[in-house]
Amino acid sequence: MSRIAVINLATLGLLIGGALTAHLTGHAFLVTLATKAAIFALAGVGLNFALGYGGLVSFGHAAFFGIGGYVTGILASHAMSGQPLTTLPYTMNGTNEMLAIWPMVLLVSGLAALAIGALSLRTSGVYFIMVTLAFAQMIYWFAVGWPAYGGEDGLSFYVRNAFPGVQTMQPLSWFLICAGLLLMTLGFTAVVMRARFGLALQAARRNTQRTVAVGIRPFGIRLTAFVLSAMITGLAGSLYADLNRFVSPAMLSWYMSGEIMVFVILGGVGRLVGPVAGAMLFVTMEHLLGGISDYWQVLLGLVLLGVVLWSPGGIVGMLSGRGRGHA
Amino acid sequence: MLLFEQLLNGLQYGMTLFLMAAGLTLVFGVMGLINLAHGSLYMIGAFACAVVTKATGNFWLGAAGSLAAAAMAGALIEMLVIRRLYSRDHLDQVLATFALILIFSEGARWLFGSFPLYLTLPPSLAGTVTLPGGLVYPVFRLGVIGLGIAIAAGLFWLMHNTRLGIRIRAGEADREMIGALGVDISILYTLVFALGAALAGLAGALVGAVQSVQVGMGEPVLILAFVVVVIGGIGSIGGALLSALLVGMTDSLGRALLPSLLAQVMPQASANTLGASLAAMSVYILMAAVLVWRPTGLFGARA
Amino acid sequence: MKTLSIMTLAATLAATTALAEPIKIGMITTLSGGGAGLGIDTRDGFDLALKLAGDKAADITVVTEDDQQKPDVAVQLADKMIQSENVDILTGIVWSNLAMAVVPAAVQQGKFYLSTNAAPSALAGPQCNKNYFSVSYQNDNFHEAAGQAATDTGYGKVFIMAPNYPAGQDSLAGFKRFYKGEVVSEVYTQVGQTDYAGEIAQIRDSGADAVFFFLPGGMGISFMKQYAGSGVTTPLIGPAFSFSQDILPAVGDAALGVRNTASWSPDLDNSANKTFVEEFRTAYDRLPSVYAAQGYDTANLILAAAEKADVADQDAFRDALKAAEFDSVRGKFSFGPNHHPIQDLYVREVVKDDEGTLTNHIVGTAMTDRGDAYAEECKM
Description:
The structure holds 3 protein chains of 3 kinds. By secondary structure, chain A is mainly α. Helices cover 72% and strands 1% of the residues of chain A. Chain A is built from 13 helices and 2 strands; from the N terminus they run H-H-H-H-H-E-H-H-H-H-E-H-H-H-H. Chain A has helices at 3-24, 28-53, 62-81, 98-120, 125-145, 171-194, 196-206, 208-213, 218-244, 254-267, 274-292, 296-310, 314-320, and strands at residues 155-156, 246-247. The longest helix of chain A is centred in the C-terminal third of the chain and has 27 residues, at 218-244. The mean pLDDT of chain A is 89. By secondary structure, chain C is α/β, with parallel strands linked by helices. Chain C contains 12 helices and 14 strands. Classes of the chains: A mainly alpha, B mainly alpha, C alpha/beta. Chains in contact: A-B, A-C, B-C. The A-B interface holds A 51, 57, 59, 119, 122-127, 129-131, 133-135, 137-138, 141-142, 144-147, 254-255, 258, 261-262, 265, 269, 295-298, 300-302, 304-305, 308-309, 312 and B 28, 34, 81, 84, 88, 90-92, 94-96, 98-103, 105-107, 109-110, 219, 223, 226-227, 229-230, 234, 273-274, 276-278, 280-281, 284-285, 287-288, 291-292, 295-297, 303.
């Protein structure tokens, strides 16, 4: 087994083993923390898809995280009140079944990414970073000002949505659902990045001109990657909404975009389990240092600065003894 | 009369944004660096102004203090952190400066606490004047407009008529070239960074004086300043000025006019809330529209 | 992230008291960020009541945590308090949006929630719950009182303004419910807005007799300072939130003379209030705000209920809370059918006291025995 495979297994083992141990020793809240880490990791895996493999530095992924959350919240609140979402062109009701919510989340965040990506990918470099940020801000302000679903106050739906045969309010069951989705997405990412599409995407990141020269049009590939990336982050947003039974514009804020980036960078850009390691470190630091000091973000800032300046490959890069990753 | 007052408000807001954006666009253009921590320098200026004004009782000393403190903080982070990032890609720059925001924000919270500080303007600036046409307008806001114009003029003069300005423009055009000509690049970069920081600090002091000085005040302005820089075209001072005024006007007039315009086509109550949300989105819609039309901004170099 | 302060009061005295079950209270409130002043006052008022109760509070433990004014943090803290601290009662949330995120889930899991401040309309109406009590008010109350006061003063035309979020929309609706004159303009500002030049221009242009505004926290301070410097002299009226003791020093003399409405004032004449104001000044060296008063009342309500019933017997404890047999600093106090207060609302004016500190004093009563507009929709 290669060194990187060992690191991958160890990271995932730590997350799942940690949650199981916490459950067996009766620390329900630690299971909830592990769930939070798994969800953040999933959001990071989504961003890594575009940023790590495709070189598309999106500073607006909170848009998709929040859209996933709002789709979940809106469907669940309609299911609770019994009011249909819309009666035109045909009656559409809310639902509290995760298996019905997730496809809707993927669809809506994918469509949003299609529109945002098609416009943003006309630009590159700094302009791409800023225009993705601008689109996220636009959606943020829309959510703040849109009174129907709570505006600035956000939207509560009290009970976690349902999954067939599982009591989702039970912390461990809920963790296993989130961790299962995380593992499936990691598997999907690994397969895609070894397939023709993934190779072309990574080639386009390294050298656009050469990619064009061999007959690949990078725009379509990048747009596809951006949409897939947004769908994964949207799914994470849906889970985060279910974790808290609550969505608010904070999920759409630029700060959230920054945090999702932090998960990816702390762990290691372009590394399969990088975002998992990054999210685990983030949640652990927040929990442990938050208890010691209210000012734990200073320490987070210092750690982040250290990683960027001296260990650009993040945790996984450091452990594997190589610099920035390439799958 | 109301419209004229709103235009003045837009102009004043635009000038404040210009002070922020000028430094950002210079640093973008000359060093190729995205600096998210520019908002922290704005905050440092505001806190410095509050502290010095409180200690000396003199707002003018406070404003001078904001320039000095922000310039010093700027030079310091340039030498300790930023200069390691010039050769890195934008991703590293975004993250490292995001880390600086966390450090500065929490640091300021630690020093000054969470509660906002408030400044009191000296009597000479606190009053109102009656403009030709009978409009009563606060002296301070007029002063901000005047100061903005003066600083814009000063920056144009600096860029076009001084040795420093010529070097800066040469640096934008070709980074290696000016090094080869024997200009000490690292000093030039520190100077440019400190200049941008000082302008941001001054903007912080001006805004802090009429609003409030608090942790986290820099970030909303930072994002708007980025919008300004990107609309204007990276590296262009003239573009930043034009786009700052455009953004300031869009925001002020949008907030003032959208609700009543919408009320023509829908009930007043929904027009009020929808108008308020559309006005909040308007600046970003403007930016997206400009970039789709011209992917490098109004005055940006053609890619 | 968290300030963990577990306060076990006089555990050694526990043997002398007759209480059967100890009570564990989880306080989630805002102790950092721009809204920290409100949360700190809530906590200090609450703690003061327990301290003054002496060994009656011996079996009460309070776990206090900081929600940073973020709803998702508040939800996670509530999960933690319910899952791992096993608290009996939750309390302390300042903001309506955080309350909406925490309260329904908490009461569904069989915990009591006693609100020290936020009381959104949804929780008073269709989503009311037998385990949820608002000790403070219903959110609309202070705005309704301001509307009544504006009518009583004889203002014919009023300019009204609030942030564009649900509490802001409720605020203007509450004002209009009791204001009989003409609303010349209704303006929604951005949440967190700091520059009000545009709105001030509209006020100048409106020709209104008075301006009603609801701008909580820093928004109100910025507005007041800019308004004072604008040369516009239209009188202001508002709910107490922008003139509460925690922010008056920041607003400065610009606030002098402004009328505002509340259920409490430091000069309210009853013996419980005299003790409270005096002890609060001694303990914390500042004047209490309305948030501190509400926190203090909440703790005293819990103490009174604990004397009569065991928290483990939920039905008995709920009845004891509902009876509200405690000495409120607001004087008269009882609960309506939806567990929201029925109380008097006063008009206060900002003045300087003998030591030159800005504070409020009562100049009139706007409403007596006011309940709320949503009680009928509550099916408990």
